Amino acid sequence: MPPPSLPAAQDQAASAVRRAGKGKKVHPLPVPDGAAMGEEKPAATTRRPAADWLTPAGVAGILARHPLPALFACGLLLFMAVEYTIPMIPPAAPPLDLGFVATAAMHAAIDARPWLNSLLAALNTVFVAMQAAYILWAILVEQRPRAAIATLMMFTCRGLLGCSTQLPLPAEFLGSPMDFPVGNVSFFLFYSGHVAGAVIASLDMRRVGRYRLAGLYDALNLAQVVRLLACRGHYTIDLAVGVGAGLLFDMLAAKYLESKNIETRCCSNCQKALVSQKLTS
C-alpha cells in the first residue's frame, strides 16, 4: 500500500496540469504502427534493387567506378572465344612463343656474334650475383629475413615444378660458359628464377625506401627478360610466371613471419627515422 503522501502529491500534480491546459486543445502524440502492441517498425533501407546494375545507367556506373575489373571481364569473354577457335600446335611442331618472334632479330645478331652472347651472359650473371648479395645483406647485416625466406621458398618450388614437368630446351637455344648456372648445368625452364629473384629484391628495396635502387633493379630485370628471350634461355611463360612467383613468395614469407610474431627490422637509417618520428610526436 503506497504511503498517504504519494496519492496526495499525484492528485496535486494532476490538478495543476488540468489548470494549465484549461481552454487549450491538446493533440496527442502520433503513435507508430504496431507501437501499441510492442512491435518495432523496421528501419528503412536505402539499398538499391539487385537488378539496377543491369540497366544501362547501372552498367555505365560500374564501368566508371571499376574500369580494371571491367577490362578483365572483357578479356575473359575474348579468351573464352579464342580458346574454342584457336588451332593448337601439332605434337611434332616446335612450340609457338610470341616472345621468340619479337626477339628474332636480336637472336640472329647474337647467334652471329658468339662474343656478344657471352658478354650479355656475363652481365646477366653479374646481375644475378647482385640479387644474391643484396638478399644476403638484408638478412645478415640488416636482420630482415623476409627476402631470404621468400627466395628459399621460390627456388624450392621452382625445383619441384621443374622436376614435375620437364619442358624441352628450345632448339635455338644459345648457351654460353659465362651464363648462370655455369655451363648451363641443371637447366630448369619453368619458371624463371632469375626474374623471380630480381622481383623479390626489388620489393624488399621498396619496403625500406630504396626506390631508386629498386627502379634500377626493375630496369635490369626487364633487360634480363629481353636477353633470355633472345638467347632462348626461357619461354615467355617462364618469365611471366617468374614475376608472379616473386610477388607470391614475398607475400608468403610475410605471412610466415606474422605467424611467428617476428617483426622484420629495418636498416639503421630507417630505425633512426622511426625514433625521430616518435620523439617529435
Notes on the protein architecture:
This protein is mostly helical. The chain has a domain at 115-263. The chain has 11 helices and no strands. The protein has helices at residues 5-20, 56-65, 67-85, 98-102, 104-112, 114-140, 146-164, 193-207, 211-230, 236-259, 268-280. Helix 6 (114-140) packs across helix 8 (193-207). The protein is extended and about 115 Å long. It starts with a helix and ends with a helix. The mean pLDDT is 81.
Molecular shape: extended
Helix count from the secondary structure assignment: 11
Tell how many strands the DSSP assignment holds. 0
Mean pLDDT over all positions:
81
Radius of gyration using CA atoms only: 35 Å
User: Which secondary-structure class do the elements indicate?
Assistant: mainly alpha
Fraction in helix: 55-70%
Q: Into which percentage range does the β-strand content fall?
A: under 5%
Order of helices and strands: HHHHHHHHHHH
Main sheet: strands, sense, barrel: none
Distance between the termini: 65 Å
Low-pLDDT segments: none
Transmembrane segments: 70-89, 119-140, 147-169, 181-203
InterPro entries: AtPDCT1_2_TM_dom, PDCT1/2-like
Domain AtPDCT1/2 transmembrane: 96-255
Keywords: Membrane, Transmembrane, Transmembrane helix
